[in-house]
Amino acid sequence: MLTNSIIQIYNMLILIKSNKPKHMKILKLFMVIFVFFSGLNAQQEKEIDSLKADTLNLLNQEKKNFKFFGVTQFTFNQAYFENWVSGGENSVTGLLTVDYNINYLDKKKWVWDNNIMLSLGTTYLSGNSFFKKADDRLEINSVLSKKVNTYWNYSAYFNFKTQLLPGYRFYTEDGEDRKEEVSQILSPAIIQLGLGWYYKENDLAWFNISPLAARGIFVNKNYTQNLSPGEKYFGVERGASSIVSVGASFSGFMRSKLMENISMDNKFNFYFNYLYKIKNIDFEWNANIRLQVNEKISASLIVHLQYDDDLIKRLQIRELFGLGLVIDI
Length: 329
What we know:
Elements (H helix, E strand, L loop, with lengths): L1 H16 L4 H28 L3 H11 L2 E14 L11 E15 L4 E16 L6 E16 L4 E11 L4 E7 L2 E8 L5 E14 L2 E14 L23 E18 L2 E12 L7 E12 L4 E12 L3 E17 L1
């Protein structure tokens, strides 16, 4: 098939050399490209068809050990005001959320569950000079476990969190909007490792208990070298680039069906520091209530609470409600 394509290309090139109008030459050139790739495609199809049946069966058998599922959601919010007596600001917010799981189970009862979550969003308010973040999170979770019985497993887990885009502090100086970079990708980066027990009923309900967990917060040293004495940057002291602690953690996930077309996802994580202020519990809770309008359109309410002494000694709250496009796999 590839030989036939080459012969056809040669014949086409001879025709292009003839004294024809310019637009005809361009048309024939596109025909050459089309014929070439058609020949390659046909050859690839022939090679695929020639694979032995036992090889295909082996591939299918291995795929059965994996589960791949998740959701991609686009959320959009918009507000517009004109001659509105009580006032208001025009605004536009866009949010992309990607949340996928890759789970593996082999015949020896080894379980490997992985989750990757990415959320990026931006907001623009009329009259402002800059777009501002609505969200910027990248989180990876991985649990490797060995089954003890139907639900319980010995486990080792890994958690990684960071952001993808620079973060800014916005302020006004001499009547002009200005911004100062205060964070970036991998600054901070939070890594947590632990050993313990993993309880899993199914893909919609699980939790992990780790009495021995280490956590590290890593930052770019450029952000700490000019700190004032006693000041910290995400818990990292002046001139340093990391802080490490040892403690215990408890994390989990649960999806429940509130009504026929309304579901709620709950993710949570608690961390107890053995070395410093053990009474202070760092926690993170993320709830996502989704109303499925039809196969592609949904409304969602996201509530995200976080408290971490090392990051900021106040409760962090993020809430977003919007109408979105959903792609389920």
